[in-house]
Amino acid sequence: MKRRLGGLTIVLVPEESGETRTFRLSPRRVRVALFAGLLILLMGGAMATSWWYLALSTARSWQLQAKVDSLEEERGQVLSLADDLTRVVDEYERLRSLFGSTESPMAPDLWLPPSGLPGSRSVSEGDGAGDNLPTSWPLTEAGYITQPLVVGGEGSHPGLDIAIPTDSYVRAAGSGRVLRVGEDTMYGFFVVLEHGDGYQTVYAHASAILVERGQVVRRNEVLALSGSTGRSTAAHLHFEILLDGLPVDPLSMVEQPN
């Protein structure tokens, strides 16, 4: 290769014998070739840089996608927990409604046993005709009926079993007189009221009795606190209505609150 002033001459000499070839480039062509080479070099660098940037962006997008997938999984877990919580709350409200609300509208009708102190109200005060009939729900809460009246057969059951929290108020279904109070292996602590006209009511499985034999009580007066004494597997009230000594379906005379 020989370079002349103002141009460039390229001589190709084969290794074996043969004719040599000579290429002469003018200064203009040399500048064009140099410019083209520089342009190709710049384009190659730009392409390499773009490829590196794309590769880096792709790697970052994979990382972001992995984070998005992780967040979606966590979001699914949160939604699942929220659904579980909603079901638990719904179940709690359902059970709470089964056992009644402590804000029962019957509460204003509640009559606690008289204290015997001066100024206490008489239990017979305000009793009217027919007030003795046992037609009031015997609890301040709705509770949940677990066993209805069953007459005859081995599964005979002479009243209602009403599931209710321990120490809930047990009320007189109608005005009357306390005929019996006591405890036995079947009913646990129990109260029997005599209402007249052949009606009696029984309240069993109490945790505590708040009245005495012979005491006159009025409708909705508290007789006892609910419990699980006697033959019982959980806190509940066993409630019976008897007419001339025979069991009457309590739901034919009293109505369970909503």
In short:
With 258 residues, this protein is an alpha+beta fold. The chain contains one helix and twelve strands; from the N terminus they run ββαββββββββββ. It has one helix spanning 27-98, and strands at 8-12, 21-25, 144-147, 160-163, 169-171, 176-184, 188-196, 199-209, 216-217, 222-226, 236-243, 246-248.
Characterization of this structure:
There is one protein chain. Strand 6 and strand 7 (188-196) form a beta hairpin. The strands form two sheets. Strands 3, 4, 5, 6, 7, 8, 9, 10, 11 and 12 form a ten-stranded antiparallel sheet that branches. The chain has a two-stranded antiparallel sheet with strand order 1-2. The protein is built from one helix and twelve strands. It has two domains: 21-75; 107-117 and 130-252, Glucose Permease (Domain IIA), CATH 2.70.70.10. The chain has one helix at residues 27-98, and strands spanning 8-12, 21-25, 144-147, 160-163, 169-171, 176-184, 188-196, 199-209, 216-217, 222-226, 236-243, 246-248. It is of the alpha+beta class.
Shape: rod-shaped
Q: Unreliable runs, pLDDT <50, ≥5 residues?
A: 100-108, 115-126
Q: Percent range for helical residues? A: 25-40%
Q: Major sheet, described briefly?
A: 10 strands, antiparallel
Per the CATH scheme, the topology name of the largest domain is Glucose Permease (Domain IIA)
